[in-house]
Specification:
mainly beta; 10-stranded antiparallel β-sheet; 12 strands
Length: about 210
């Protein structure tokens, strides 16, 4: 089941308004044949604000939009159900924690609670065709929902930032991003030791 409220002016390329949704899903039905029973909840909040909109020609405006999105996903096991690796939440590096494509290999980057936040500055290059973005992502995964609220530290977060090109055509929802990855460990700034820079091919997914 899902519920959403949409106040965006254009859902695939908004310049103002906000969006909120809640999705609940129950996994597991037959105890004899299934071993995992849990409730999965996903909450999404988005907000958009036009910072400036200056007419330059009859067909193009110099425009800047601030876009913010945060989402929280939690898995609530039923009784003593043990959640398998395949059903645990993880950082995919494409939509959540962009650039951290190899983080899913780490046990610390998988769990039952995931908080993802993204802040973007967007500038359309060609109206309704292509735009330039600059993003900053932060994502954290914890072993349980209770840990996310009681034991969340700056060391748990994976950060990334960088420029990107976003196609504004709904039929071609591609993003090309250059992500610089870092973490804060023991109050010290650290680039990702494996590869501080990564090219990411992502998609311009519209939440509904």
């Amino acid at each position: 089941g899902s519920f959403s409220i949409d106040d965006r002016d254009i859902n695939y390329d908004p310049s103002k308004g906000w969006f909120a949704s809640e999705r609940l899903a129950w996994y597991g039905l037959i105890p004899k044949y299934e071993k995992e029973f849990f409730l999965r909840s996903e909450t999404i909040l988005e907000g958009y604000l036009t910072l400036f909109d200056i007419p330059v020609s009859e067909t193009w405006n110099f425009k800047g939009v601030l876009a913010a999105q945060t989402s929280f996903t939690g898995i609530f096991p039923f009784s003593n159900t043990q959640i398998s690796e395949s059903n645990r939440l993880y950082i995919d590096g494409m939509f959540k924690g962009r650039g951290w494509t190899k983080a899913y290999r780490s046990a610390n980057a998988k769990g039952l609670a995931l908080w993802n936040t993204s802040l973007e500055f967007r500038m359309p290059i060609s109206a309704n065709l292509v735009g330039f973005d600059f993003f900053h992502d932060s994502v954290a995964v914890k072993p349980s929902v209770s840990d996310m609220f009681t034991d969340l530290k700056i060391d748990d977060f994976y950060f990334s930032f960088g420029p990107g090109i976003r196609f504004l055509i709904p039929q071609l929802p591609l993003k090309f991003l250059f992500a610089f990855k870092y973490r804060i460990q023991d109050n010290k700034f650290q680039w990702d030791q494996n590869s501080p820079f990564e090219f990411v091919l992502s998609f311009n997914i519209v939440n509904k």
